[in-house]
Amino acid sequence: MITNFKPTEYSLKNVASGRVFNDSGWLLNDPEGSEPSLIRAEYAAKQINFKSSEFGIYKFADWLPVSHLLEGSSPTVTYKSKGLAKELGLSNLYISFSGYWPKIGANMTTCSFKETEAYSVCARLSSKSDRVLVVASAGNTARAFAKVCSQNSIPLIISVPEDNIDALWFDKPLNDCVKLICSPKGSDYFDAIALADKICTSPKFFAEGGAKNIARRDGMGTTVLSAAEAIGRIPDCYFQAIGSGTGTIAAWEANLRLIEDGRFGSHKMKLFPSQNIPFTPMYDAWKASSRPLLPMNDEEARVKALEIDAKVLSNRRPPYSIKGGVYDALSDAGGDIEVADNRDIRQMQELFLRSEGIDIHPAAAVALKGMQNAFDAGKMPRESIAMLNITGGGEQLFKREHKICFLKPSLIANAADDGIVEKAERLF
User: Fold this and answer.
1) Is the pLDDT of residue 414 over 60?
2) Mean pLDDT, residues 103-119
3) Given its phi and psi angles, is residue 265 left (phi above 0), alpha (psi -120 to 50 degrees) or beta?
4) What is the pTM of this model?
């Protein structure tokens, strides 16, 4: 247990206006902002000091908005690929692996990089808070927050579509401080968000905030910090699958901090996020050179979201258009949005398992296909220093080695159901 940790010093900046202000505790936007905009953490430490591995993800704490440390975290592991690189004809491919693969030192027991978010967000929380955190998720985020909150006795409600609850597996029963509520069968991530929003109308609960939460983005950004530490410089290009696009925003922001650090290069890596066909709202907007997302009615979006194998990539209201969002990240850094279909996912999972020796999640396979597409189209030279963000893997290995149990819902309801808020309050 590390006991001599001092809270990270930082201020907040409105991306749209440039206004700098202090964090009063759980700000998700600028209270004086005149237009929708993300806020960004401005850290006192302009050069990052990478701590030892005993700190887990908090080895990157200089650039995490945390007030204390939590038990049980593990950082992303970056290594230079041999097998996959040879298969794809790439000479400088680095894989940033977030998942369970003890052979390389990767020990995220939820097998997902959503742990980077959960350990950062929950360490931003005041240890004196008596309110209940609410997190909406398509699956992996809920599993990560449930693990972290269970281990550290943090009250939590997770809201997940009932069709996705098979993602809520664990190697041990959870602390009773974690409760699951679900939107009914046939619903999607957007419905789970609406349910979470309704719950948060009660003063007993408060929203985690998603992409607006600096701790979530900067936790995700540690994947890029892992790569910079391993490579010794900023990569030339970055590949990741996106549902909300928050990881791409986080990668861009981490890149900007590394430039300011001055020891890792002065260039911006090209960003290549990927989506799962047929659910491609950001790809469609980007290809149309449109900051606003293109029109899509709720029923069409719900049907498309249910068709994709990478269920975690099904955010219908992503932070694409907002100032500081995905559109701005791509416009500033350069790059493109790629796509992969369900058949591609299965092929890429087989390719990664064969060439690297570990199973990967469907979303990570979407990222791999996007990278293959980009290089095959000549969008980057094949000798480029490439970072492939494998956002989840090792689940099959973990389940072979551990007995698994599942979290059962305490409530199944729509946001419009009568009395849903009172029912949620009675869970605690």
Assistant:
1) yes
2) 96
3) left
4) 0.95
Angle between helices 140-152 and 114-124 (to 10 degrees): 40
Percentage of the chain lying above the pLDDT 90 cut: 90
Q: Which amino acid is at 353?
A: L
Q: Decide: 228 and 73 in contact? Cβ < 8 Å.
A: no
DSSP β-bridge partners for residue 136: 159
Q: Which helix (H) or strand (E) holds 81?
A: none
The closest of 211, 224, 209, 210 to 60, measured between CA atoms, is 224
Q: Check: CB of residue 318 under 8 Å from CB of residue 244.
A: yes
What domains can you pick out in the chain, each with its CATH number?
A: 77-111+215-399 (3.40.50.1100)
Token pair for residue 157? Answer: 């409600």
Q: What is the pLDDT of residues 235-257, one digit of tens each?
A: 999 999 999 999 999 999 999 99
What's the mean pLDDT in 45-50?
A: 98
Q: What is the DSSP string of 236-292?
A: SEEEEE-SS-HHHHHHHHHHHHHHHHSSS-S-PPEEEEEEETT--HHHHHHHTT-SS
Residue 51 has pLDDT above 90, yes or no: yes
Residues 110 and 107: their CA atoms lie apart, in Å, by: 9
Residue with tokens 């907007």: 285
Residue 278: pLDDT over 60:
yes
Tokens 């606003």 correspond to 292
User: Which two three-digit tokens encode residue 98?
Assistant: 């977030």
- Structure tokens belonging to residue 405: 């149990």
* DSSP character at residue 139: S
Indicate if the pLDDT at residue 1 is higher than 60: no
Q: Which residue has the tokens 């979530």?
A: 216
Token pair of 338 as six digits: 């790629």
Distance CA 140, CA 111 (A): 9
The pLDDT score that the predictor gives to residue 28 is 96
pLDDT value for 10: 98
Q: Which of 426, 428, 427, 420 is nearest to 199 (CA)?
A: 420
